[in-house]
Amino acid sequence: MKTFVVIAAFNEEKKIQKILHDVRRYCQNIIVVDDGSEDKTFNLIRKCRVVSLRHLFNRGQGAALKTGIDLALNNGAEIIITFDADGQMSPKEIPRIVKPILDGKADVVLGSRFLDIRSNIPFSRKLILKMAIFFTKITTGLELTDSHNGFRAMTAEVAKRIDLQQDRMAHASEILNEVAKKKFKIMEIPVTVKYSEYSLNKGQKASGFLKIILDLFFDKFI
Hints:
Helix content is 42%, strand content 17%. It is an alpha/beta fold. The protein has one domain (3-221): Spore Coat Polysaccharide Biosynthesis Protein SpsA, Chain A. The chain has a seven-stranded mixed β-sheet, with helices on both faces. The protein starts with a strand and ends with a helix.
């Protein structure tokens, strides 16, 4: 099945070329959306053998992924994988995350860092993630072990039918809301997430989780 990897990148000049080099070992169709970076990220992306797009200003990861997903669908994607640009994820796990879709067992496959003991999750980050898991359970009814992991795969049918409106980090919760509402088959698999000082500085803080809740609240009720 024709598979695309979609990557949103913002100020990732230190990591992006190595990430793209490693991802290409497992998938040839790569779309990278530079989300208004202020460094050399976009110029470095253009030197790689990938499709490169650019937002003129920073709109947020959700908006960048939507741009990339829409382009993948327009180019005949049958499976779409989303992948982070900060070096936390392992490209060699790409074949594993698409296998349940190829086997007909799932429409959406979510990577879970809590199912893999090799993931070195700091306590502060673990606390935020556990709150997100609880929030997902009470809002969607989904029993998940990891609800805000950017490593996921979905069929083209799912990508076409989920209605993404959240431009920033709340998109991860929005995807799960849409998947639950439209009753797609969902599966989690263990994936490795390796934290570094670099990725922690770029990642979600507790204030970011509160903003996600506020964004979802305003979207639903206001």
